Structures are given as structure tokens and as C-alpha cells.
């Protein structure tokens, strides 16, 4: 591992809402390390002079670690605040880093605009940044009051308030069950629909306190965490963006170049795992076929058979890393 990768703290930390279980450790959120950075960069193995796409620039932690290997970086983030901060953080790398406010699902279009054909690697470090989570005005926090927003890209149209106030009870139940994996999904949806008849939901504490009444407190995790996760995933179409982003980035990898993805919950990890599996099988077989057929999507080799998880030290010192999983695959000719 390259110890230099950690020589400077970064402005962002990575991770899911799980942070909110551990208020004691939130005090120094501003100066956490990016999750699994050394492992991701080592497995990405970028060549000096090649161009790597970092689809989730955040505070620039992974971007910086890649730049230190001698590779150049095109860093994307859909949040304009992240791009502003990453630009300051990475100014000393000059022209070796290009920053664009964009969704990584549009990576192909951005590369076309820049006149870039193939790339020497790609990385995604999914979820919200600590800046987004801790900045109450962005509306991601279950514990700090702010507008019920949750848009990573403030220019996008649907906010969490729109969903909470407009979705039908069935749609809310499905959302909380499927994207939040919340056992009390139906009861939470029913309470929301009842309460919003009196007054629409406008801010985060109003919602998290209502959820707490239904779910109750169990363990250290805030009872609204799963529902907030579901809303955040829906607002930002995170799973749709991930599927499109994986396709767009993999299509641009040159032979031998790698893609690394850090996920923070099972829904994301399943998409990455299935995508890598579907693209790394040379042959497909079905009982109804007389013989196996060549897989038209076969273009990857798995570098990580099992996901890489943070070591004991990182788990202890960076609670956000605890649910992180890193998967890496390599483009084949
Ligand atoms: C966990 S943070 C990344 C932190 C970064 N790797 C670092 O080391 O500082 C995730 C970032 O990805 C951005 N993001 C999430 N989904 C995105 C998408 N589909 N397209 C572009 N950016 C996205 C978020 O706005 C957030 O800034």
C-alpha cells in the first residue's frame, strides 16, 4: 500500500447514513479519509500519463490518490459544491485534473465533448459525502433540521418533499420496503399519508420525528435512517445512475484498464456484482439451448472474486467505512 496516499486529510469522508448512529464520532467529520482509498488505487493500478475517470469526485480524496500515481484524472460530480471544493483542493495538480459537474451516467457524453476515446481506468465511490450529510441545508440529515431536499444535483427536479407529499401510500410503502429495506414500511407510509393531510412535510426533523414514533428506537442507529436512505436513493435515481454509469464507463476502458467501485449498501453492491458477473462470463448456457452460446457482453475479467472490505484499523478509525465493499474488474481485449 502507498502510505503517501494518506499523508493529507481530505475535506470529504465517504459513507452512508450509518454515520448518524455515532454522534460522538461526527465531530471531526470534515477531516476523514476517503474509504478504501489505498486498496482502490492499488487495484486500479493506473499507468502514469493515462486518463482515469473519477465519477464521484466529492472532496477529491480518491482523485488525489490517483493523481499521485502519475495518472491524469477527469473528475465528475453531480453536486456543484463538490466540484467547487475539489477544484480548490486539487488546484496544485494544475492541468492534470479536469473537473466537470455531471452525472457519471453521462460519462460517455462528457468524454465525447472532451474528445477522449478510451480511458485508462474508472472509479466510483458511491453514496453521499460527509459534506452533503452534515450540511443541514441539503436535507440529508435525520438529526439536523433542514429543508426536505436530498438532491445531490440542486438543478434536478424532484426533491424528497415532493415524494413524501405526493406519492401514493402504496408507492411509499414499496419505496421504503425496496430501497430502505425497512420492516415498518407500510406503517410509516400510512402515518405519512395521514399526517400530510393536515400539513405537508417540509423539513427533515418533522419527518424523522414522525418516523421515530412508528419505528421506535432500537440500537444506535437513528430510526429514520432506512427511510431517509430510501428517499435519497429515489430522489437521485442512484440505482439507475449506477447501472448506466457502469455501462458507460466500462465501454470506454482500454484493454487492460480497470474499473473500481466502492459501495455502501446491499442494493448498490448487488448491481455491481451482477454487472461484473454478467460481463465476465465467456459463455452462457440455458437448459432450453442445445449448446452454450457466446456471451455478447463478455468484456471483463474479475480482479476481486470477493469484495475487499476495510481492515480493522479503518473500521475503527472511520465508522463510515464499516459497510464499504470494493469490487474491481479489468477490460479484456
Ligand atoms: C462518497 S462521496 C465521494 C468522496 C470522494 N471519493 C472523496 O474521496 O472525497 C460521493 C460523491 O459522489 C457524488 N455522486 C453520487 N452519485 C453521483 C452520480 N450519479 N453522478 C455524479 N456524482 C455522483 C455525490 O454528489 C458525492 O459528492
Walkthrough of the structure:
The protein is of the alpha/beta class. Helices cover 38% and strands 15% of the residues. The strands form three sheets. The protein has a seven-stranded mixed beta sheet with strand order 4-3-2-5-7-11-10, with helices on both faces. Strands 1-6 form a two-stranded antiparallel sheet. Strands 8-9 form a two-stranded antiparallel ribbon. Helix 8 packs across helix 9 (204-215) and helix 11 runs parallel beside helix 12. The protein is globular and about 60 Å long. The two termini are 28 Å apart. The structure holds S-adenosylmethionine. The site of S-adenosylmethionine (SAM) has 25 residues, from helix 2, strand 3 and strand 6.
Query: Structural class of the secondary structure composition?
Result: alpha/beta
Percent of residues in helical segments? 25-40%
> Could you tell me the mean pLDDT?
90
Bound molecules: S-adenosylmethionine
In total, how many beta strands?
11
Oligomer: single chain
Radius of gyration: 20 Å
Q: Strand order, biggest sheet?
A: 4-3-2-5-7-11-10
Let me know the largest β-sheet. 7 strands, mixed
- Sheet-strand content, in percent, reads 15-25%
How far apart are the termini?
Answer: 28 Å
Shape: globular
- Unreliable sequence segments: 1-32
Number of helices, where a helix is a run of at least 4 consecutive DSSP H or I residues: 13
The helix-strand sequence is EHEHEHEHEEHHHHHHHEHEEEHE
